[in-house]
Amino acid sequence: MASRACVLEEAAITETHERLLNTRAPPSTGLLLGKLEVGSRDVVLALVPTPAKEEDDDDAGGGPGPGRDASSSSAAAASASALEIDEDWIVEHATQATRMLPGGIHVVGVYVFASDVAMKRASSAALRAAIEVGLAERALDVYAPPPPASSSSSSSSSSVLTRHQASPERLVVHLSADARGKVVVKRCALADPGGDLRHVEHRLGKVAASLIRIDATYDVRCELELEREGGKTKTMRDAAGAAIEREAARVMASRVLLDGTFARPEEDVVGVVGADVRAAPVRAELLCPPRASSSSSSAAAAASGGGRGGGVTLRGTITSRCYAYGRESIARACEDVKGDVVNSLRSRLGVLCDFADSADDAAAAAADEKEDGDAAAAAAHPLSEKGDPFPGGDWGPKRRASIALPRRAWARWTVGGEAEGDARHRGVQLCDYLTADEGAAEVVARAKEVLGCDVVGGVDGVEDDAEVSARDDDECEEEDDDEDEVDDAGYAPPDDGGPTFFGYLKGCHGYTVTADGKVVYDDRVACAWILFASACVALFTTIVNVFFTPDGTVKPGFEADMS
């Protein structure tokens, strides 16, 4: 395979290298963010420093400070000049950073700031760190399809890797501490941890200026299947995980419209959407297949005595922002859009489960202290081990409950510098996930901690799903009046009222809202409307045949009645 060149974002490389040199920073490491295999090149968009690892005072030698003696200072200086690469910590950092990246932007390797001598000694450690980061991304199984119904376990061999995950190589960039402007780019093979780092031709350029933003919205409203399996009742968390995987499979089976048109997969993005990347983002619409109905399986389970009845819905709005390089193919851009929606679905469920675990810990602590332990247990989150959407075990068929997915927040990130035009559409944006009791301040703090960046505008530069939808979709209708009010835990209380015919038609499992706000009903609702319309037509036809002749006159004997 021919060696690919590498294009480095000039602003990111220059600013990082100059800052490290001017502050006489000790040797350090970090992550490379960008894209691999974009045509005949790899692109690096940003450098993210590895955060400092917290250590005990004993391990740190009492910690830095002016009160230490000369021998301690000398030891600290010697330690600071040595390059230490903590592979496990770098992998953990990459995992956390990946969750905050928009679609199309990935961790493509690691960088090292050190002297030439120190880098030569630590080259094998840098190679292993880059490989471990790549293998950890593959373990995420972003596109892993749900296991077949007849299979009791899933195999990693059935997973379908993204183009980024399947890439066999990762990058290692050395920022020399000996000379300004000395940058060395090398490449390593994931399958060869004992191999060598190979030199790569590189140049500086304006990578951020060549990125085109693609926006999409996906409405999640799926019903959890709570029937028994093999004599064992599904937990709410298992049912939620299965529902998310069904949604992921549905997204991956979708087709993507870009600005209302289907483009040939082999075409370049810039050739389809135009070269003016300063214009408004490209709008993508996911055309998904209908959601599979679970009514038949639920009815069978109820008939056998295994069903629990009731209905629990997982709902939310996914706002996706994906960045495509101008010269990459439409097929890859569409894959990145769908991959971002799937990643967002799984990340939100993970945040929700973490929140439920925290609620469990808080309830256990309250019970241990005997401070209203009964109330704490009753308030358990439905996705916790003790949670139940219908307290008391009342799982009647008329009961309804809804669990809201965490919000996704977006914040402006000055990657590649600012450009003229609408600032909302310029620069790469980072994301984060918020529970009901979190806000913009948490996004700003986590962006600084994980990505080492300052959010442009601070808390005013953060917007969540609701704000994005309200701004970008001015023509969308207001939310249905039957929306349940969500409390601070992100959990909507059950509705005690029984279902009605029109309530069923407008119910959480009766339709899908597409990206442009259109309501698409599923097959059950379509059949119900067809039967209703057919009955109306039959009734009208009967009335006409009874009172009127074929030529349109009133039949004899009905003149007086018609008058």
What do these coordinates show?
- This protein has an eight-stranded mixed sheet with strand order 7-6-5-4-2-3-1-8, with helices on both faces. It has a six-stranded mixed sheet with strand order 12-13-9-14-15-19, sandwiched between helices.
- Strand 5 and strand 6 form a beta hairpin.
- The longest helix is centred in the middle third of the chain and has 39 residues.
- The chain folds into four domains: 186 residues, Cytidine Deaminase, domain 2 (3-Layer(aba) Sandwich), CATH 3.40.140.10; 238 residues, no CATH class; 56 residues, no CATH class; 35 residues.
- By secondary structure, the protein is α+β, with helices and mostly antiparallel strands.
- Helix 3 packs across helix 5 and helix 7 packs antiparallel against helix 10.
- It contains 16 helices and 21 strands.
Q: What is the distance, rounded to the nearest whole angstrom, between the alpha carbons of the first and last residues?
A: 90 Å
Count of beta strands? 21
Strand % is 15-25%
Task: Tell me, briefly, the overall form.
Answer: elongated
| Number of helices, where a helix is a run of at least 4 consecutive DSSP H or I residues | 16
**Oligomerization category of the chains in this entry:** single chain
Radius of gyration: 29 Å
Regions with little confidence, pLDDT below 50 for 5+ residues: 56-80, 142-158, 294-309, 417-425, 475-521
Order of strands in the sheet with most strands: 7-6-5-4-2-3-1-8
Mean pLDDT: 74
Helix amount, in percent? Answer: 25-40%
State the major sheet: 8 strands, mixed
Tell me the count of domains. Answer: 4
Judged by helices, strands and strand pairing, the structural class is alpha+beta
